[in-house]
Amino acid sequence: MQSQDVAPRPTHASADGFVVDVEQAEAALVEHYPRLVRLAYLVLPPGLGRNRRVLTAHALTQRALPRGRKSTPVIPAQSTGREGDPGYAFVRLRVVRAALDAGLPLTPRAWPRRAQLPQSLPQVWGLRLFPRSGGAEELALDQALSALSGPARAAYVLRGLEKLPDGDVREVLAAAGVADPDSALGEADTLTAQYPLLDSPEFDPCSLQARPTDLMRRRQHTKAALVAGAALVVCGALLGLPGEGWGPDGAAAPPYAQNPAAQAALDPSRLVKVPPAAWQSASRTDFSVWPARGELIGDRALLRRALAVWARPGESVRVSVTPGTPSGGPAGPPQLLYAGTVDNARVVILYDGLRIARYAEPKDGTAGAALDFARVDGATGAGASALVLGRSDGNVRYLTAPWVRRTAERDLLKPGSGAMALTLTDGVTSPLASPAAQQSSCTSWNVLQVTDDSGTALLSDLGELVPARLTTGRPGSAADASGARALRTWAPYACSLSAVRAQGVRTVNAWEFARQPLPDAGGSAAWVCTRTETWRGGGTRVLAQFHTPGGAYGAVAAQAENVPACGPRDPHVLAGVLWKSQTGSWYLLAAGSRDTASVRATGGVSASAEGKLLAARTEQGAQAELAGTLENGREISGLH
């Protein structure tokens, strides 16, 4: 098996002596941003307060990129993920150094470091942001970490979160400017090793709750008081005061307007309930033909609370919205899809023709109610075959379409293993492991396999209400990822789905656009383009990935956002990578889609080839630009 060594591109030096190009560092930061922000949050002193810690962690991570940017794209070196990636090691070092600097006290005689100054971005006005609360163990760990010095806290986090041995921790601390790394490691030893807790939502500054701040102070401003008073007089004179108060609406805010359409949308008796057999005679298979299911579909009080919170979520309601999804109330009575008990919550799922809304409240009250929105316009067939009903203890339950006959759980990383059947009870699946809960290494990626009369499809939980549909094939003729060949295609690239969590993803297609013989008898490598489509249309993401024989994962060779490449409008792609053979020689490898007539490289590597493949001998750290010509004479550039 050939070496998996990588060739960083020269621009900036990392802690281990490698030279890292700014684009390689940017790719590592984008791919591992949640991990790096969590690292910064944990190293920052807890005395800053949770809100300031969250904003500072994001600011320090976003400033971790080196200054300066090349004006032309370069060919990245082959990467094998976070472990062993010089780009990630470089960005991680800058994050640790900045977090340690931010924790230093200001002294009157010393010029403050940049990290010690108030962060200019990001800024949030009128809200306090903080991670979701954990349990007693997380609170105790946070208090224990606050008693450590900054270097000791960094040593503990690098050990536990990054899984670094003490030797590597010592090197990172020294490179970050810690004067005595051994003392920091010794101080970290005084704290009990509770490393799994570092992956808790308590320490996740990317999954946040919001609360208002300084309300009393803002209300004291004269202008605001006059405007509010005038609005109250006008609204009271025109609309009158509501008569039913807070009781039946649970956690909803007070209603500010009453009109027939708004009142109809809040009336549980007006909810649309589709007959159980309607889908069998319908001309389409979408959410509009889903029947109402669940043991609480007759609970008018629960349905009224769900409708009222949808129209007017109160300050205590946790609201999440996928990108591009409107969050306002329904225009008229929505359709009821589900009302029942899921684990320890009462759940109501509604559909208004454009969006899915999921309301959840604890079984013992309405405190802590949550409201989630997802856009589903145009969903049909496999794209409308399942919804996330609830998540608990790292597992997920789905509500499936009435036409789904069988469901199963399948590990996408193990294409040769079989699928484990899931039980279906009134359309609700038994729980299966959710990849959306993974925070550390990617050792499995479990997906939902649904089977109906038209075939089998794979759906992946990406942390949203609607799972993403996985497909394979050339753009324009892609099909559901079913069958042995499709499973083998997806296996090396499943973990790359973590980069598009919570992005409003509709489908992800994996297209093997080329296979390339490797020099020095290295076997044959696969080039695969994964394209992520969203419900809102924009925000598409394209990754060109390179997989060598025997490798567990594919390596990202190039990436781009909001481009037509690898899609139905432009089913073409060209990408390249620097690769080290088993004999120690370095090569520039490049590949285009099947209708590529020629490929050429310029810059640090000067080479050309007829056809869609290029292999040229080069040196470690070489930089090059790619261009190609299609069979119809059109010029294309390398994906970047």
Present the secondary structure layout.
Elements: E1 12-13, E2 19-20, H1 22-31, H2 33-43, H3 50-62, H4 86-102, E3 127-131, H5 136-146, H6 150-160, H7 166-175, H8 181-189, E4 208-212, H9 215-219, H10 222-239, H11 260-265, H12 278-281, H13 300-311, E5 318-321, E6 335-342, E7 345-351, E8 355-362, E9 370-375, E10 386-392, E11 395-400, E12 406-411, E13 420-422, E14 424-425, E15 428-429, E16 432-433, E17 446-452, E18 455-460, E19 468-472, E20 479-480, H14 484-490, E21 505-517, E22 524-534, E23 541-547, E24 555-561, E25 574-580, E26 586-592, E27 596-603, E28 607-610, E29 613-618, E30 624-630, E31 635-637
Parallel strand pairs: 5-9, 19-21
Antiparallel strand pairs: 1-2, 3-4, 6-7, 7-8, 8-9, 10-11, 11-16, 12-13, 12-17, 14-15, 17-18, 18-19, 19-20, 21-22, 22-23, 23-24, 25-26, 26-29, 27-28, 27-30, 30-31
Helix pairs in contact: 1-4, 2-3, 2-4, 6-7, 6-8
Helix content class: 10-25%
Helix run count: 14
Distance between the termini: 29 Å
Low-confidence stretches: 1-18, 69-81, 107-112, 233-247
The Rg value, from CA coordinates, equals 27 Å
Structural class: alpha+beta
| Main sheet overview | 10 strands, mixed
Task: Please state the average pLDDT score.
Answer: 83
Structure summary, number of beta strands: 31
DSSP strand content: 25-35%
What form results from the Cα inertia axes? Answer: globular
